[in-house]
């Protein structure tokens, strides 16, 4: 898909997401938060769910966790316009509750179609709910920072930036995991196979 087609496809998809009434969150949201960034990004960051600030602005990761994410991106020479940032679900759960299974299912199609349009070389999951989309049953404490192959995608699960705000000891862990991304992305762009990668024989969704 060429760039102009990707841009058009993403704009149409965002319009569909804005009209979504697939679960009860459509009745309590202020705005949908489809995601933002390059529609042809080489790397996509997928979080869990919008919070208060995201719900108000319709943009992902604009609160304190988003400020830390911006710092993390800067530490590896990236900015928001260079990447795609989204969430597993596109509406804020009341009181920032954890996403429920049926809410995640209601949004599965949106995330799948976003990734099909973007065709990222690398996906970074932020938090256990986005990790579970690719690695069900796994523990984030066990596999964070590890590069794994899921179908045609390289996926790196990481702690959510908000975890560092609540548990300061995780900040260094997240920073160290981010530093691993540039060589992984470089390898993906060069289409080199990494023998150490653990191949996951599963579908994306």
Q: Short description, anyone?
A:
The chain is of the alpha/beta class.
Task: Describe what this molecule looks like in 3D.
It contains nine helices and seven strands. The longest helix is centred in the middle third of the chain and has 18 residues, at 101-118. It has a single domain (3-190), classed as Uracil-DNA Glycosylase, subunit E, CATH 3.40.470. It is globular, with a radius of gyration of 16 Å. It is α/β, with parallel strands linked by helices and 205 residues long. The protein starts with a helix and ends in a 5-residue tail after the last strand. Helix 1 packs antiparallel against helix 4. The chain has helices at residues 3-18, 52-57, 64-75, 101-118, 128-134, 140-143, 161-166, 170-179, 181-189; strands at residues 36-37, 43-47, 84-87, 122-126, 148-150, 153-158, 198-200. The model is unreliable at 194-205 (pLDDT under 50).
Main beta sheet: strand number and arrangement?
7 strands, mixed
* Number of β-strand runs: 7
**Structural domain tally:** 1
Strand order of the largest sheet: 1-3-2-4-6-5-7
Shape: globular
Order of helices and strands: HEEHHEHEHHEEHHHE
Overall pLDDT level: 92
In what range is the share of β-strand residues? Answer: 5-15%
Secondary-structure blueprint:
Elements: H1 3-18, E1 36-37, E2 43-47, H2 52-57, H3 64-75, E3 84-87, H4 101-118, E4 122-126, H5 128-134, H6 140-143, E5 148-150, E6 153-158, H7 161-166, H8 170-179, H9 181-189, E7 198-200
Parallel strand pairs: 2-3, 2-4, 4-6, 5-7
Antiparallel strand pairs: 1-3, 5-6
């Amino acid at each position: 898909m060429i760039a102009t087609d990707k841009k058009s496809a993403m704009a149409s998809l965002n319009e569909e997401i804005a009209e979504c009434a697939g679960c009860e969150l459509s009745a309590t949201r202020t705005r949908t938060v489809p995601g933002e960034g390059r529609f042809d990004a080489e790397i996509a960051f997928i979080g869990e769910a919008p919070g208060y600030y995201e719900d108000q602005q319709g943009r992902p990761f604009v609160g304190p966790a988003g400020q830390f994410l911006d710092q993390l991106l800067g530490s590896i020479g990236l900015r928001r316009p260079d990447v795609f940032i989204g969430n597993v679900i596109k509406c804020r759960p009341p009181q920032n509750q954890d996403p429920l299974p049926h809410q995640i299912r209601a949004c599965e199609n949106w995330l799948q179609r976003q990734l099909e349009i973007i065709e990222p070389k690398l996906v970074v999951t932020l938090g256990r709910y986005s990790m579970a989309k690719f690695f069900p049953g796994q523990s984030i404490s066990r596999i964070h920072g590890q590069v794994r192959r899921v179908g045609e995608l390289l996926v790196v699960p990481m702690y959510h930036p908000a975890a560092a705000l609540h548990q300061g000891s995780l900040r260094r862990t997240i920073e160290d995991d981010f530093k691993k991304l540039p060589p992984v992305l470089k390898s993906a762009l060069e289409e080199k196979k990494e023998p150490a990668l653990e191949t996951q024989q599963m579908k994306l969704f």
